[in-house]
Amino acid sequence: MKKNAFSFLNFMPYAVFFACLLSASTANAVIDVYEFDDPELEKRFIKLTYELRCPKCQNQNLADSNSELSLDLKAIVYEKLNAGETDQQILDFMKQRYGEFILFNPEVNQSNALLWAGPFIFLILIGGGFFRWYLSNRDLDDE
Amino acid sequence: MHAEFGNYLLVLAFILSVALGVFPMLGATIKNDTLVATAKPLALLFFVAMLASFLCLVYAFLIDDFTITYVAQHSNSLLPTQFKVSAVWGAHEGSFLLWVFIFSGWMIAVALLGNNLPRYSYARVLSVLGLIAVGFSSFLLFTSNPFERTLPFYPVDGTDLNPLLQDFGLIIHPPLLYMGYVGFAVSFAFAITALIEGEWNATWARWTRPWTIAAWSSLTIGIMLGSWWAYYELGWGGWWFWDPSENASFLPWLSGTALMHSLAVTDKRNSFKRWALALSLSTFSLSLLGTFLIRSGVLTSVHSFTNDPERGRFILMFLAIVVGSALLLFLFRSSKVKTKVDFSVVSKDMFLLMNNILFVTATFIVLFGTLYPLIAEAFGKKLSVGAPWFNSLFPGPMVALFVLLGIGPMLNWKKHNLDKLKKPLTIIAIVSVSLSLIVNWLMGEFFAWVFVGLTLSFWVSFSGLYYLTQLSRHKKTLREKLAQISYTYLGMTLAHIGVVVSLAGIVLTSFYSVEKDLRMENGESSEINEYRFTMSNVELINKDNYQATRVTFDVYKDNQQIQTLYPEKRFYLAGRQIMTEADIDDSIARDLYVALGEALDETGQVWSVRIYVKPFIRLIWLGAILMALGGILAMLDKRYRNLKSPKVNPVANSDKNTVDAIVR
User: Fold this and answer.
1) Residues 6+ apart with CB under 8 A from B229
2) Contact A49/A74 with Cβ under 8 angstroms?
3) How far is the C-alpha of A142 from the C-alpha of B103, rounded, in Å?
4) Which site among A139, B10, B242, B558 is 20 to 30 Å from A86 CA-CA?
5) Is B449 exposed, middle or buried (0-12, 13-18, 19+ CB in 10 A)?
6) What is the tens place of the pLDDT at every residue in A76-113?
7) Beta bridge partners of B664
8) Are B513 and B613 in contact (CB under 8 A)?
9) What digits encode the pLDDT tens for the residues B99-122?
10) How many helices (H) and strands (E) does chain A have?
11) Nearest-angstrom CA–CA distance, B433 and B436
């Protein structure tokens, strides 16, 4: 591996290439690197960016998406965290702005009752069905 | 020429499938031996036609025939040769051609290996597969023909294969995944035949089992490859996202797992019959549902094949016909199938029953979560159901399953006295809890889920190994011991250990991974855990079909350089797309993962960089490999090969079908 291959002689293709990279990704280089003094804050940041959906992408969260919109949203999350807002406040803000669609973790509330209760109802029905079948058809030889 | 020939072969395959779907079935019904005898040659011809058609498309890609629309859209003259081949299944039309080709492979396997079946059943099974082939090949021919021409104005060069797909993972992931998906068509065809004949018993289960296990093993590897590919290729370091495309493959996997277990009961105890039938039908239906969800584009997923409502309607109609007729047949015919319940609460039967309840519940959770946004949208509400929802519900049935899994395999059929097991099980439980605590302590931080996950992993592994030693306790040498244990038990234990190896990987990597987004300048270092990453070089490289900036990271541990990583930011020339190529130093204990974000200055000396340290992530995929190996072992058990001989088949001796088979 040749070290420092980067020199003035081969600088030109570089510059062109980077101009390409920059223009293709974002208009003005957005720095999506966030430094945290408090590791607790960093954990919350990671958690929030994993639970928020990039509203414009196919099916990606903010953490994995590099679209301009999610970079903006990440910046908002960062600012709000540093301003001392709670996770819930940030989620509420996002919900108000982009609708429930943005929350990957659907809220536990009355309108989502079926979503959260569905699996339990299913388990009770199928489990109950089986045990009724078992008890009513049981035919043990030695009892 | 080749395009027309390939197209002609598709038409031929379609006609052959119609013949296969009609004649043998008719022959078996009116007892016409000539018609029954057409089953095998028709199946062979269908396979040959599909193979030749598939090769035509491969050839078109190899010679860069851009007069074919599909080739022009998904290949490019600069594409390396191996990717020209895999580009065949890089998008909807070609991948569906591969799908039907693989399906024809299963069909010919049944035609060649299924000669232990009674003659009429053999004809019916192939005929049902023929009917499914009618659906598949007409879908290909009428909505997704890969041989359409761009003539007369064809492009000079192709658009290029999506750079994400120019990768080894794409070469092997779809073929194996499709092998799993369509493989369940075989158990479906067996079940339908059994329903038509009104007979479903242990013999049927024994015929179905190896096919089901084969499909399940392929699907396991297919899913595993998809997860591994997403991990290293997409640049976000995740291995599972509960994306609809992942769920689509996970649904038949879960249901197929339940099916394998219930077939074991039908085989050994001639019980759970309606249940095994229902699972055979629903597993393949879920395969089709998955196809519909992915290929119609009704769900937003990272996997998007071009969204064409006509295709969606077609698959939905096909799905409705398949599920509808299967359901009707089931409702009208399965009541003839009687099951006696003669097992007590502590018995292998009961544990397998609970296994089935839990697996079906898990299937339901995934299905419900995947479809809920669609249901909600129909009622005018737009919401997302993402990873957090699945992660909070899915582990429930899994924990219960793993607890039972430590006990179930050791129990006797019908009835078991737990007294003798109490002592070893208590010891295994204590050892598991202690080992789990030790690992937790070694990893630094305590997490309840890690504790639970690891305890269960140890619990299942040790109890499985203990059971194997018990099975072979009367033999002295290891060789004799291994010879004593049947492939079924060996395979089963291996697969069970595989699933908990994955479980251990999942909990360890989920809770102890470290993720850092950093701004780094050439020459700068940063420390993560015990590793120091130094950015030591930035260079521009030129390849055939892309240019890339390659950044060098030297990785140090205790001031010793242990590895050099070269993540790249690639610019693909044909499609003018930018891709991140992560570089990973992998080992069982941990992965070091570096991916480039954006260049933060004009000279490219400063980058945003994402670095992960992911402990034990390899265990997730290693476990899946063990599961598939276990499946292959179980499939090779001689009890399935000697089906023709009456001696090894005492249960079914009285059975008319088997007598039929023996006579033949």
Assistant:
1) B167, B169, B170, B173
2) yes
3) 48
4) B242
5) middle
6) 898 888 888 888 999 999 988 888 888 898 888 888 88
7) none
8) yes
9) 999 999 999 999 999 888 899 999
10) 5, 0
11) 5
Q: Where are the alpha helices (DSSP H) in B406-447?
A: 419-443
Q: Is B521 on the interface with A (CB under 8 A)?
A: no
**Nearest alpha-carbon partner for B606 in B541, B549, B528, B561:** B549
Q: Which of A9, A12, A57, A58 to mutate to test the interface with B (most CBs of B within 10 A)?
A: A58
- The amino acid at residue B379 is F
Chain A positions touching B610 (Cβ under 8 A) are none
Amino acid at the residue B146: P
- Superfamily for domain range A32-105: Cytochrome C biogenesis protein (1.10.8.640)
User: For residue B482, what pLDDT band results from cuts at 50, 70 and 90?
Assistant: confident
Q: Flag if A21 and B519 touch (Cβ within 8 Å).
A: no
Given a cut of 90, is residue B475 above it in pLDDT?
no
Model pLDDT for residues B549-570, shown as the tens digit of each residue: 999 999 999 889 999 999 999 8
According to the model, what pLDDT value does residue B517 have? 83
| Separation CA A91–CA A106 (nearest Å) | 11
What amino acid occupies position B177? L
Helix (H, G, I), strand (E, B) or coil at B425: helix
What is the token pair recorded at B545?
């079909």
Dist CA B158 CA A111 (whole Å): 49
User: What span, in angstroms and rounded, lies between the C-alpha atoms of B606 and B535?
Assistant: 10
Q: Tell me, what's the pLDDT at B648?
A: 36
Place of tokens 């329903």: B195
Residue B466 has what pLDDT?
Answer: 92
Whole-number Å distance between alpha carbons of B142 and B49: 17
Residue B28 has pLDDT above 70, yes or no: yes
Q: What local confidence, expressed as pLDDT, does residue A25 receive?
A: 39
What percentage of chain B reaches a pLDDT higher than 70?
Answer: 94
For residue B357, CA distances in Å to A124, B275, B325, B331, B464 come to 10, 11, 25, 21, 22
* Residue count of chain B: 664
Q: What is the pLDDT of residue B302?
A: 52
Q: What is the phi/psi pair of residue B16, to 5°?
A: -60, -40
**Residue contact B539–A60, C-beta within 8 A:** no
Q: Which runs of consecutive H residues, i.e. helices, occur in B234-345?
A: 244-269, 273-296, 309-333
Question: CB-based contact (8 Å) between B571 and chain A?
Answer: yes
Residue of B598, B602, B605 best to disrupt the A interface, most CBs of A under 10 A:
B598
Q: Where are the domains of chain B?
A: 1-162, 167-382, 418-513+617-664, 514-616
Sign of CA dihedral B56, B62, B68, B72: positive
Residues on chain B touching A53 (C-beta within 8 angstroms): 384, 386
B541 Cβ under 8 Å from any chain A Cβ: no
Chain A residue with the nearest C-alpha to that of B577: A24
pLDDT band at B44; cut points 50, 70, 90: very high
Question: Does B341 contact chain A (CB < 8 Å)?
Answer: yes
Kindly state whether B353 is in contact with chain A, defined as any CB-CB distance less than 8 angstroms.
Answer: yes
Q: Where are the alpha helices (DSSP H) in B31-149?
A: 33-36, 39-62, 69-74, 81-86, 92-113, 119-143
Q: Which chain B positions have a beta carbon within 8 Å of A98's beta carbon? A: none
The answer to whether the CB atoms of B517 and A64 lie below 8 A apart is no
Q: Write A94-97 long-range contacts (CB < 8 A, 24+).
A: A94/A52
**Residues of chain B found within 8 Å of residue A141, distances taken between Cβ atoms:** 342
Q: Where are the domains of chain A?
A: 32-105
The whole-model pTM stands at 0.90
The model's pLDDT over B190-224, given as tens digits with 9 standing for 90+, comes to 999 999 988 888 888 888 999 999 999 999 999 99
Amino acid type, B474: H
Adjacent-strand bridge partners of B542 = B547
